[in-house]
Write a structure and sequence with these properties.
single chain, 663 residues, alpha+beta, Rossmann fold, 5-stranded antiparallel beta sheet
C-alpha cells in the first residue's frame, strides 16, 4: 500500500464544481456509467472533526481521510487491492477493508482463486497504516474473517477480528471441511488487535463447526457468541464457549445471524424467522436467565441497523422498502432526522453516518434527476451542504426515471420489479432489456443503478424483476423460490415482460435479457430453456450447467456445507448430480438457442467457475449457434474494477444495439 498526505483546500472541490453548470449538456458517454463512484462510504468521526471516504484515483479506489475545516489529510492507496469499506475506530483511527484475488491452489480448479479480505488500521494524524495480521503471517493467515467491534481500556484502544490461526509453515490454503493446508482445525478465532501497534492476541477461540460469531461490548467484554453446525442448527450462547445456551434454531439453509448489541448492554440482536408468520426479523434476546425474546420494529422490514458510535447499542434501522424509511427508537432522534429529511423534499434520503451526539450527519439522496448526492448536515447550525456526487458527470437530465411496477405471475403470486426509463422518451412501445438480479436471494431497489441507467441512456427501457425467491419480501416469498430455479423463477421474469407489454410501455418483440451470476443463468435460460421471447441474451459470469454448479459448490464448501445445502434447496435436488437438471441447463440445450448470445466473464471469478462460460461457448460453437465471448482480465465476480466495468458495458451495449436496435 502507499500512503500520501493531501493538500486539499475543500472536500471534493472538483466534484462539486462539476455540477456548477447543468444546462445544455450532451448525453454522458457510456464510460461515465461504468466508472467507479467518485465518492463512496462517507464516514464522520464520532467527534465530527474528521471525514473518511472511499475516493478514486487513476481508476482505483483509495481511502481518503480529511480534517473538516482544516488543511491537508491522508490518502491511502492499496494498489490492485479493491477497497470495500471504511469506518471509524476509537481514538481517531480508521478501519479500511480491501480484498484481493489470490492464487491458492492452481492444481484444483475450485481453489484456483480465492478472495481474501485485508483490514488496515490507519492513523490520520501520522499517516501510519498497519495491515492486520500481516506481521504475524507465520502464525496467523494475513486475512481477516469478520470485524466484531472495538473497545477502549485506559489509553489503549483495540479492534476485534476473526483470524485463522496457523501451524507449521503458514503457507497452505485453508479447506474448512477437509483441514487441508497448514492448520489442524476448520474455524476462525477471535483476535483483539492493538490499534497503535497492530499486535494481536486471542480473545476467544472458535469451534469445529461451520461458523462462529461474537458480540463485543465497548468495554471489551464478549457478551455473546453463536455457532452453526453441519446438521443445520444455529445456537446462541451468553459469553464465551461452553457457556449458557440462550436459544437454538433449526436453519437447514442458514440465514440466521448474530448482528450485535440490542437496546441495552445485556441484550443482543438476532436476525431470524419469528412469530406466527415466521418472517425474518430482528429479535432482541436478553442475556439474563428467563428473558423473553422481543421482535423489534413491528411489521417494518429492516434492511440495515443503526448502532450508536459511542455505546454500540441499537438506536434504529432503515427499512427494506422501495422508498426506505429511517426509524429511530428514540423520539428525539427521530424528530431531528425527520426535520433534516423534510428539507430535502422529493428525494429518497438515507442516513450514511453520524457523530456520537447526532449533531452532524452525512446523508445520501437519490431521486428524480439525482445520481446520488452526499450532504453534510450541521444540525445546531441549521446548515445542510451538498459536498459530493457519486457520479459527477451524470447530471439531472441524464438520469432516467425509475418506478416500481407491480404485477402477478402466471400462478397468481404477487410481485414487482423496477423499471428504469430512457431519459427524454415517452414510456410507450419502447425496446426493453430485462435485467434480473443475481443471488438468487437478493433484490433490486428503486434508486440509481449504474448498469440499468447505462442501458436506459442508450434508449432502452430496463426492467429488473424481483422474482420469487428474492430477498426482502418475507420468508414465504423467499421459500416460494425453493425448487423453482429455471422453473417458476424463470417464468416470473417473462411474466414481467408480458405485464409491461400489456401496459403498452414496451414492445415485446424488441426484448433482450441480460444478467450477472444467477441473472446470467436467467439470461441464458431465456433463450434455451425458454424460446421465442428475446432477440439476444448477455450473461456476465453466469451459470450454464447446474450439475457443474453442484460439483463446484461441493468442492469449495464440502459435502455437509451450508453453501451446498442452499444450492440444492433452490435447485430442488438432494444430491450432487441429477439428470432432472439437464432440461434446465443451458449448456445441455445449446442446440435450442434461438437468439445470439454474449458470454462475459472475469478471469478472477471466485464465485462461479469460469468454465461455466467457457464450456457453454464450446457447446454453442459445436451447435453452430451465433455467440461472442469477452474475457475480463484481473476482474472478479462483482465487476470491481473500473476498466473492466466499462469494457463490459461497451461490449454489451454494442451487442444489444446490433441484435436489438433501440430505434
Amino acid at each position: 500500500m502507499r500512503v500520501s498526505l493531501l493538500a486539499v483546500a475543500a472536500l471534493a472541490a472538483g466534484v462539486v464544481a462539476a455540477h456548477a453548470d447543468d444546462a445544455a449538456r450532451p448525453r454522458p458517454a457510456l464510460e461515465d456509467y461504468g466508472k467507479l463512484p467518485a465518492i463512496e462510504g462517507m464516514a464522520l468521526s464520532p467527534d465530527g472533526d474528521w471525514l473518511a471516504f472511499i475516493g478514486v484515483a487513476q481508476d482505483q479506489r483509495r481511502a481518503v481521510i480529511k480534517k473538516l475545516g482544516g488543511p491537508g489529510g491522508v490518502a491511502v492507496s492499496f494498489g490492485k487491492m479493491k477497497v470495500r469499506g471504511i469506518g471509524w475506530l476509537p481514538k481517531d483511527h480508521v478501519l479500511v477493508q480491501a480484498s484481493e484475488t489470490v492464487s491458492v491452489d492452481p492444481a484444483q480448479e475450485a481453489y484456483a482463486r480465492s478472495e481474501f479480505v485485508q483490514s488496515t488500521i490507519v492513523d490520520p494524524a501520522t499517516g501510519a497504516a498497519i495491515p492486520v495480521f500481516v506481521a504475524q503471517r507465520s502464525k496467523i493467515l494475513p486475512a481477516t474473517y469478520g470485524y466484531y467491534g472495538h473497545s477502549v481500556a485506559g489509553d489503549r484502544a483495540y479492534a476485534y477480528f476473526g483470524g485463522l490461526t496457523l501451524e507449521g509453515s503458514g503457507n497452505g490454503f485453508v479447506d474448512f471441511d477437509n483441514n487441508r493446508g497448514s492448520i489442524s482445525h476448520g474455524h476462525t478465532d477471535l483476535y483483539r488487535v492493538d490499534l497503535k501497534t497492530g499486535a494481536p492476541e486471542i480473545a476467544a477461540g472458535g469451534s469445529e463447526l461451520l461458523g462462529a460469531d461474537w458480540v463485543v461490548a465497548p468495554d471489551g467484554a464478549i457478551v455473546a457468541h453463536a455457532d452453526y453446525d453441519r446438521a443445520g442448527v444455529w445456537r446462541l450462547f451468553k459469553g464465551l464457549m461452553n457457556s449458557a445456551l440462550i436459544t437454538r434454531i433449526d436453519a437447514p439453509i442458514g440465514g440466521i445471524g448474530l448482528v450485535g448489541l440490542g437496546r441495552t448492554p445485556d441484550s443482543v440482536l438476532v436476525y431470524q424467522p419469528f412469530g406466527p408468520s415466521n418472517d425474518f426479523t430482528y429479535v432482541e434476546y436478553p442475556l439474563q436467565a428467563g428473558g423473553t425474546p422481543t421482535p423489534l420494529f413491528g411489521d417494518a422490514p429492516i434492511r440495515t441497523l443503526i448502532h450508536s458510535e459511542k455505546t454500540g447499542l441499537l438506536i434504529g434501522g432503515v427499512t427494506n422498502e422501495d422508498d426506505p424509511r429511517t426509524i429511530f427508537l428514540d423520539h428525539g432522534l427521530q424528530a431531528r432526522f425527520d426535520a433534516v429529511a423534510k428539507a430535502l423534499t422529493g428525494e429518497t434520503v438515507s442516513l450514511v453516518s453520524t457523530t456520537a451526539d447526532f449533531d452532524k450527519m452525512v446523508l445520501l439522496t437519490e431521486g428524480p434527476g439525482d445520481s446520488g448526492t452526499y450532504y453534510l448536515v450541521d444540525y445546531p447550525k441549521r446548515k445542510i451542504e451538498a459536498v459530493a456526487w457519486r457520479y459527477p458527470t451524470i447530471l439531472q437530465g441524464a438520469v432516467g426515471d425509475v418506478r416500481v411496477v407491480p404485477y402477478k405471475a402466471a400462478d397468481g403470486l404477487q410481485m414487482q420489479g423496477i423499471l428504469t426509463l430512457p431519459p427524454g422518451r415517452e414510456a410507450k412501445n419502447l425496446p426493453v432489456v430485462m435485467l434480473p438480479h443475481g443471488g438468487p436471494e437478493a433484490r433490486d431497489y428503486k434508486g440509481f443503478d449504474w448498469w440499468a441507467q447505462a442501458y436506459a441512456s442508450r434508449g432502452y427501457a430496463v426492467f429488473q424483476p424481483n422474482f420469487r425467491g428474492s430477498a426482502g419480501f418475507g420468508k414465504a416469498f423467499r421459500d416460494a423460490g425453493l425448487g423453482q430455479w429455471g422453473r417458476k423463477m424463470q417464468t416470473d421474469i417473462s411474466d414481467g415482460l408480458a405485464e409491461l407489454a400489456r401496459q403498452g410501455i414496451v414492445d415485446p418483440g424488441r426484448a433482450c435479457i441480460v444478467g450477472a451470476s444467477y441473472g446470467g443463468y436467467a439470461a441464458l435460460a431465456g433463450v434455451t430453456v425458454q424460446q421465442g421471447l428475446y432477440r439476444c441474451a448477455v450473461s456476465v459470469g453466469g451459470i450454464s450447467d447446474l450439475n457443474m454448479l453442484l460439483s463446484w459448490d461441493a468442492a469449495r464448501f464440502g459435502e455437509n456445507s451450508l453453501g451446498l445445502r442452499y444450492t440444492r434447496q433452490f435447485l430442488g435436488v438432494t444430491g450432487d448430480s441429477s439428470s432432472s437438471l439437464d432440461p434446465l441447463s443451458p449448456r445441455k440445450l445449446a442446440k435450442r438457442a434461438d437468439a445470439p448470445i454474449l458470454l462475459i466473464f472475469g478471469k478472477d471469478d471466485t464465485v462461479v467457475s469460469i468454465n461455466q462460460s467457457r464450456d457453454f461457448a464450446d457447446a454453442l460453437k459445436a451447435a453452430g449457434k451465433p455467440h461472442e465471448v469477452v474475457v475480463l482480465e484481473d476482474e472478479d465476480h462483482w465487476l470491481s474494477r473500473e476498466a473492466t466495468r466499462i469494457k463490459m458495458l461497451q461490449a454489451s451495449v454494442a451487442f444489444l444495439e446490433k441484435s436489438n436496435p433501440p430505434t
